[in-house]
Amino acid sequence: MIPTLAYVFLKEKNSKVRLKLMGPIINCSMQFFKYTIIIWRRKEIQEGLHAIRHDWIQATEEERLIFRSKMKIGRRVVLIAAFTMYGGGLCYRTILPLLKGTVITADNITIRPLPCPSYFIIINEQQSPIYEILFVLQVMAGMAIYAVISGTCGISALLVLHACSMLRILVNKIKKLVNKSDMSEVTLQRKIMDIVEYQMKIKRFLKNIETVTEYICLIEMIGGTCLMCLVGYCILMELENTNTMAVVVYITLQISIIFCVFILCYIGQMLVDENYIVSQASSTINWYRLSIKNMRCLILIIAMSNYPMKLKAAKMMEMSLTTFTDVMKMSMGYLNILREVI
């Protein structure tokens, strides 16, 4: 990050090239902060993983089928995100600099491009083997960055989709509460107690998820908006230069950025939908089959179901598909401003 910043502010004079180089700097900064958050919240992540392990051990076969169905969705989503991110990122760090080839300046100086143009002040990055070492190190740094992106998406998807599975199990528990008319009073009270305890367990798990993901989501929303705008601007610049291969690489990179933002919004929307199903199930239960005493017990279940916890970015914005469309609109708006100003 520091050599690239030095290159932008001390060496490069072209404003369009400076703007292009801000994309990798913003991306590196995002992943640095996200990785710091993951390390800072490692205790909460361990607690969440321990809770998932405990739920799988205690689950019935029917509940494990629900867990598997949600985990399959999470696995597919994260694999697609990792594939697109590594594909687009590695193409950006290998194919683009190799396509540019060596450049000979007016002073007859040969310049070989690096994946991320850098200015090291005290060393000459164009000399061999310094150039080759820096090239390999920058590609490896890119792989580390893409691992952080895939890892944070994977952790968020794992935790949130497990919470969705728990909410679906809660719906089944609520529906089975009044299915049998010959149920004894003691059995009914135990079922009500089990539902209330399970709701509290879900609330604690969701609180833990919020602690882990709130700032990750915020960074992804803000940084993703900036990156979509900058990469879109790079696509337009390469179209003007009729550089087809660079356009393909930037489009692949744009798809990966959009997909990473979409993942967080999508799992947030799934959590909203599952909460709505729980609210509907608790409100439409056949309460008239219960005694007056047991009817009063349902008030707590219905009240807890009507105040769901949602996935939020630092308590400022709700993660949903509506938020995703807002981010897309905002990034396109900033792109239009860049086209007019620069």
From TrEMBL:
Q: Which superkingdom?
A: Eukaryota
Q: Does the keyword Cell membrane apply?
A: yes
What biological process terms from GO does the record include?
A: signal transduction
Cite the entry's keywords alphabetically: Cell membrane, Membrane, Olfaction, Receptor, Sensory transduction, Transducer, Transmembrane, Transmembrane helix
**Record field: transmembrane:** 77-95, 144-171, 212-233, 245-267
Classify the protein's membrane topology as the record does.
Answer: Multi-pass membrane protein
* Record GO cellular component, one term: plasma membrane
Instruction: From the Swiss-Prot or TrEMBL record, state where the protein is found.
Output: Cell membrane
The molecular function terms of the Gene Ontology recorded here are:
odorant binding; olfactory receptor activity
PANTHER family given in the database record: ODORANT RECEPTOR, ODORANT RECEPTOR 19A-RELATED
User: What is the similarity comment for this entry?
Assistant: Belongs to the insect chemoreceptor superfamily. Heteromeric odorant receptor channel (TC 1.A.69) family.
Name assigned to this protein: Odorant receptor
Q: Which organism is it from?
A: Apis mellifera (Honeybee)
Q: What is the lineage of its organism?
A: Eukaryota, Metazoa, Ecdysozoa, Arthropoda, Hexapoda
Its gene is LOC100577671
